[in-house]
Amino acid sequence: MVAAAKAGLHKAALEAQFPRVSEIPFTSETKRMTTLHTLDGMVTPSTGVVAYSKGAPEIILDSCVRQLTESGEATLNAASREKTLAAAHQMAGQALRVLAVASKSNAVLEHVEHEMTFLGLLGMIDPPRPEAKAAIQTCEQAGIKPVMITGDHPLTAQAVARELGLLKTGRVVTGAELEAMSEAEFEREVENIEVYARVSPAHKLRVVTALQNKGHIVAMTGDGVNDAPALKKADIGIAMGITGTDVTKEAAAMTLTDDNFASIVAAVEEGRGIFGNIKKYLMYLLSSNIGEIGLMAGASLLGLPLPLSAVQILYVNLATDGLPALALSVDPPEKDLMRRKPRNPRTGVFTRPVITLMTVGGLWSALVNLGLFAWALSSGRSIEEAMTMTFVSLVLIQFFKAYNFRSDRNSVLNRPFANKWLNLAIVWEVLLLILIIYLPFLHNAFGTFYLPLVDWVIVIVLAFTVSPVLELAKWMERRGWFGKMA
User: What's residue 365's pLDDT?
Assistant: First the structure.
């Protein structure tokens, strides 16, 4: 329509002058569309009903016996066909989507797509979005292999795929070649094919099935009614929200509101970030509980007084652990998140490395606090002062662990203060801790004691030791000492 408007031919005026009386709609199998028109709503003796057809050049040319030239209609011979196809291939090689157009006078619907007159070729550019190339590179870094499946000419598909950096091996397979492959042969080759051209929706279903049989998790995009079986079969069916049909949207697991491939990649990153944050706050909370249980159980087994009062335990669980855990649930994604290989969907949160990291943090917290409590009692300090030192040490260890558990693999020194909510939570909790220690009217409620400066120094140094211990555990994890990281 844009090309016609540039030539002074406007859609509304043409529809009024040549009203459409019938049509044969486009399908991905026929790869063409034909419409039938009359002049001012009347069938004239000279032309009758005129049919116009547009579609894939090779399809349209097969239905033509004549061609329109500057001097009028002429026979479309083999040489002219070859010349036209060569021109179509040349245009397709420039990443143009090529349509052929033909017409037929005195057309009858049953035989309209035979013995037509070839009118010419149109080349349209459908440039990739600027962000598509970067999105494909991100996919490859993340261990996701993008594959192009299109109804376009193989040369067009090849040119666009090369422009996007999608085509590495040069392997382009057409629908006809796909039909000629046996199931066994296709399954052997499917992982090496990067571009499918001139394919029908039925071929999409075959591609999905073959990739799943090879053990891959498959996401498939589509917009047409015939794409529904492939979207339903795929592990993740993605419908186009703008161009997609209602049937496609019903069959899909997800609808892409902007029809932009880069949005799919952004969704993958968002999903990985959410899963990572779930893992972070679970590691933090469970490790903290391991430390508390170990402290209380250890004191009982050693015959020591209870190192924490019930109120102190409740305060640690509800206040001290609560806000940092919530802050970890909205932690910014790690920089290398999209450079990791996909996680096995059958692998849960609690892998061996995660359990190891939680256990190391919890046990070290229990040992440090139990040792501090026993030492404080043996040094002649009162039970209230020893309990307060242990209480403060436990709280501070949780704070240090919160920063360490921002990643189960990367160092705590990697953007340590990037989570502003965690920073605010820790500052708030430290202020509350100071009030509990130094406001006299809170001493009875929390069973706390006024700590001198030397006690603070001892407590802070001991609490900080959890960070290098956890960093050592991460270093060992990165080298596979505790199994494969998910």
Answer: 94
